[in-house]
Amino acid sequence: MKILLLGSGGREHALALKLRASAQAVELVSAPGSDALGELGQRVALDLEDPAGVAAWCAGNRPDLVVIGPEVPLVAGVGDAVRALGIPVFGHDAATARLEGSKAFAKAFMERHALPTAVSHTVTDLAAGEALIHSWSHGLPIVLKADGLAAGKGVVLAASQAEALATLRAFMAGQFGEASRTVVFEAPLVGMELSLHVLVDVDADHATYALLPACQDHKRIFEGDEGPNTGGMGAFGPLPFLKSEDIELMRTRLVEPTVRGLQKDGLRARGVLFLGVMWTARGPELLEYNVRFGDPETQVLMQLLDEDLAALLLEVAEGRLVARDLKLKPHTAIAVVLAAEDYPEGAKKGVPIYIGNPPVTVIHAGTKKVAGQWLTNGGRVLNLATSAPDLVAARAAIEEALPEVHWPGMQVRNDIGLKALCHAEAGKTVQDPW
User: Fold this and answer.
1) Which tens digit of pLDDT belongs to each residue from 169-185?
2) Cα–Cα distances in Å, from 229 out to 151, 219, 222, 279?
3) How far is Cα 94 from Cα 172, in angstroms, rounded to an integer?
């Protein structure tokens, strides 16, 4: 089975390792890939924002499956261009990808289909935005979101009117180009945040889905959830205190209305939806949609999934997903990010990495290899991932592995999953204060 995997980061390396573990022989091609992905198969230089270019390569090479990792090529329409050739694509159409590509589109979808979510207002005019801030009655912080893709940096929780005004002016002045000239304002949601991934196969004739375990990401750079936000410093799943009835509540309140809404709106969906969920005093509410696997949640999910990933993704891509409970290991999985010096403001690159023999999976996110030596080449450099019978054992396995991987200036959080573990050991539930 010949698979073209689009992307280059930790998410794609985790997917690639799982794809190569398939029961069938997998010929893996990555674009643009990375040195680590190059050790798993061929690399090709493709521009992921050029649907015609990707489609031209596919027309000449005829992969059996194309798996699109990041959101940018999905929003650009790469999936549409390749699917038009009759090649199966795990990745949504551009119309569906607007659920991540446009915050305003997503909020309108949520409201149209009665999904529980924060009160919001969308503005395209500076004066209207300033007036909204001055009359804001939903409490602090005021959440401002750039409408379009902003590499994960287009959301600000403004703690005051002054900060909200400054953020609005920067956004509309083009801080993120056209992506921030439309701004979505939201009331704050307070509670416990979690990540819910759903495989979805929707078109005019059918609508099926399959849930993956809920995970929890740790966004801030320092332990105790201190410091600036990052792309994610680690994740684990499933949550030890999440009960089957909690999962059913997310299914009925969030997942099923989303799937029905996609079909009702005529949106074809063949890929994964990543629902950002806030569990508030009112129950689960929807923060946002992402139209691809999360990072580092993917690294956790690939440790838990006990299915042939190549066969499963092809099932979705060909529009024949069977709604079912996916086969999972009866474990808890964890992924801990090892980040570069200066991250998240920057990243010190070219620093030699020592990798010994850690008893866990090493996932490359931002590395390059020069003369046989791995070097840092991004903000989030490596992930250490594993699974164990419970969260205590999973955390202990990472702790044992950490001395085997290091470099000068490396940043790591040693408390991934610790807050949730304490919450569970205290007998608390998802409904209790977090």
Assistant:
1) 999 999 999 999 999 99
2) 13, 5, 9, 20
3) 25
Q: How far apart are CA 415 and CA 393, in angstroms?
A: 14
CA distance 434 to 190: 9
Question: Phi and psi of 94, rounded to 5°?
Answer: -60, -35
Beta bridge partners of 215: 195
Beta pairing, strands 192-202 & 207-211: antiparallel
262 Cβ contact partners less than 8 Å away, ≥ 6 residues apart = 96, 200, 202, 207, 269
Instruction: Enter the tokens of residue 334.
Output: 């964890």
Contact present, 346 and 363 (Cβ < 8 Å): no
Alpha carbon of residue 192 to chain centroid: 17
Cβ 218 vs Cβ 279: under 8 Å: no
Can you read off the two tokens belonging to residue 424? 């569970």
> Tokens 């069938």 correspond to what residue?
24
Residue ranges of domains in the chain, CATH in brackets = 2-94 (3.40.50.20), 121-186 (3.30.1490.20), 192-425 (3.30.470.20)
Structure tokens, 434: 């977090």
- Rounded Cα distance, 168 and 174, in Å: 10
DSSP 406-418: E-TT-EE-S-TTH
What's the confidence (pLDDT) of residue 153?
A: 83
pLDDT at 239: 97
Cα 328 from chain centroid (whole Å): 20
Encoded amino acid at 4, one letter? L
Type of residue found at 102: S
Radius of gyration of the chain (CA): 21
Tokens for 210?
């399959």
Helix 418-425 to helix 391-401 angle (10° resolution) is 150
Residues of the chain with confidence (pLDDT) below 50: none
Considering only CA atoms, which of 417, 429, 424 is closest in space to residue 225?
417
- Give the pairing type, strands 89-90 and 411-412: unpaired
Residue type, 362: V
Listing DSSP states for 343-381 in one string gives: TTT----S-B-EE---SSEEEESSEEEETTEEEE-SSEE
Helix (H, G, I), strand (E, B) or coil at 205: coil
Q: Is the pTM of this model over 0.70?
A: yes
